[in-house]
Structure formats: structure tokens, C-alpha cells
Amino acid sequence: MAWLKIVVGAGVLAVLIILNVAWSLYKKRHIFEFAKNFNGFRFYPIFGNYWQLKNIGYSDYFDAVRVVAKEVGLPFNFWYGHSYLHVTDDAEAIKVILDHPDCLDKSSSYNILKVLFEDCLLVYKDIIVGKSYNLQTDPSNRLIDEMDAMQKYMAEISVATVTFGFPLHLKALLTNGWSALSLINKLKKLSSSMTDLRRKELQKYPVVGSQISFLDAMISRGNLFHPSIISKELLIFLVAATDTTGNSLTFTFTLLGMHPEIQQKVYEEVITEIGRDAPIETDHLPKLKYTERVISESLRLFPPVFIVGRHINKDIQIGDKIFPKGTNVLVYTFALHRNSKYWPNPKKFDPDRFLPEEIAKRPPSCYIPFSEGPRNCIGKLYAMMSMKVVVANVIRNFRISSKYRSVDEMEMRGLITIRTKNDIDCHFSPRN
């Protein structure tokens, strides 16, 4: 009789699972109706589009989105288990989504990052760190290496995760999962050790005046902020500052190496406006108009964060369609910035796209390297200033070269930010 109880119990469990799945699908009937308007793979209960994605092959999160977009076209539907994702590169829809008060929550695709960042804001914090904080320390260099390794492990886990919050791919869970958790712990320890190091430095050499950074202010007022909170925020600062700004500068220098005529124009502007050896002051930066256009065009071709997610909390009207509550919209910034509808010859590196008269011809929301709306990058102004300073300093001291002849030669990968799959070809030689 024991076997009969097991069979009955299994049968009851199966019925409960079926009813739960059916109820979950019934609640999403309005989303299924909406999804009929767009391309996408066939939906399978529980699994969503996991198996189709696995069958067509992908190497990481960036590649997964790219492969599906190439397979079915944009905008497209994707089912993350029973979570609906609407991936788009339509500037008009993007403007509404990023500005709308009912779309301020991040999409479910960010859940994998909560393991690392917990209660922190996943936004750039360059402006808060301040110039006075010295990140050129051994712990920060180790953090960059650990962050790069963590992204590799988390990519497969993130793509394979479904509604229940666990990867269906057991190999990814048992190998990449534990490796990623180990690296996350290392990252947290590194941020904690760097906070302790900075606290000791402040005790020996206090920062005075109005230029104290927000991070130093938090450390100096330790009675107001628990050390764990400061460490979490520092981790966000470091990831934002090192990954986004560093990658953006790398792509900018590589593009200048590919286009010596543009590089020469930047050099001439820097020498004319600043000089060969004069220190760069804040007043110089607004004069570097061509340099700014170069950086802007680099950010168009290689946006720091290639995709931005938002969750729709109420039905909203966009054009002639109602985007239903519960939809997760993924703004595919990488594709948006290369959409020929907004950018003629989109893969060409052309800084003059950002002349005032050219900007006026485009919808503003077709260019969003720092996202857009209430949850955009709070450090975008400082990021642009810092990149202009670095580019100006480097270009007046070095000539840059690269073997690439097209942006297509740079194969990309990414989970949080984008980078090249292989070592990038960019060489610097001192100017006489």
C-alpha cells in the first residue's frame, strides 16, 4: 500500500503543479494577447524560450540578445520562464518607457545582480566618488580582475534562469554558480578593505574644504553610516567608475587609432585650446567641442551599458498599443544606437553626427548612452568631463594606432557592461 500512497501523492503534486502553471498563464492572458503584435519564439509553459535560446547557441548575455534579435528581428518577445520580456530599439517607445512614472522599477532581468549589489542603486556613481579618492591601489586592481571574472560566470546563469529563480542548466549552477558566489564574496571583501584603507588615510591626512567627496564624507561621519553600507556603496562606485568609464575610453582610443585624420583634428584642437604642456583646467573643457563629439560618437557605437530594463506597473499607452502591466521592457541601447532609421551608415565613425544641426534632425531618445528619464546616470556630466580630460592628456602626448578597419572586427561580449571578446588592438607611441 505504500506504493499506492506514493503514486497518489505524486498525482496530487502533479495536479497542483499543472493548476499553478495554468493559473499563472491565465493571469497573463492580456500579455499573451499583446505579444501577438511582435516577433518572437513560440512560448512553452514553465521553460519559456529557454530551449530555443539554447538550441541556436549563445556565449553570454550580450550574445543571447544579439542572436535572438538577428533570428526574429526587433522589437521581439522573449519569455524568461513565465516572465515576459519585450526587447525594443524603437526610440519613440523608449522615450515613453524611460520617462513614465509607472515604469521606474528595474526589470526582473536585474535580479541576478541583487546577489552582488543587494540594496544599492545600480547606477553610475562617478560624480559622488570625487577626484580626491585614489583608486590606483592594489585592492582596486584586484577588484577589476575579479569583476571581469565574475561577469563571465554570471552570464550563463543569468540567461538560463527561469521563474523559480534557479538555472535549469545544472552544470551552470554547480560550476559557474559556486564560482560566481566565491568571486562575489571576494569583491565584497575588497571593497571593505579599501574602505578601511581610506578611513585610515583620512585619520592621518584629513580632507578639508568644499572639495570633499561624498564617499569621504560618509567615512568621516561613521556614526551616521554603518561600515557595511559604506562598503556596499563603494562597490557600486568602483564597478561604475572602472567598468563604464574605462571601457568607454578604451573604445574611444581604439576608434581614434582606426581614424588618424580624426585623431589629428582632436590633437590640433587640444594644442590650440590648451597647449602642449599646460595643465588642463575646468575652463578648458567647454572649448574642446570636437573632442566631445568624438567621445559622443564613441559612446554611440559602444554604449557603456548595452541594455536597460524597466518593469511596467500599470497599463500604459504607447502609440496605438497598450503595453500591459507586468511587462518587462528591455531597451536594447546597442541596437538603438546602430539603428539605420536614426543613424545613416550607422557603423561609420563620424563625430559630426553630433553637430547641433545634425542632433536637431533626430529624436532625442535615439541616443541614450547614460540611459534617460528619472533613473538615468547621475554621474553623466562628470563622466564626460573626466573622459575629455583623459583624452586630451593622452592625445597630446601619444599617437594612437590600431589594425582594425571596421567596428565589425571587434567581437563583443558582456553581462553588465560590454567589452571585446579578445584583447583589443590599440597601440600608443610617444610624440616627439
Automatic annotation (TrEMBL):
Its cofactor is heme. It holds the Pfam family p450. Coiled coil: none annotated. Gene3D superfamilies: Cytochrome P450. The keyword Repeat does not apply. It comes from the Eukaryota. One of its GO terms (molecular function) is iron ion binding. This is Cytochrome P450 4c3-like isoform X3. The lineage of its organism: Eukaryota, Metazoa, Ecdysozoa, Arthropoda, Hexapoda.
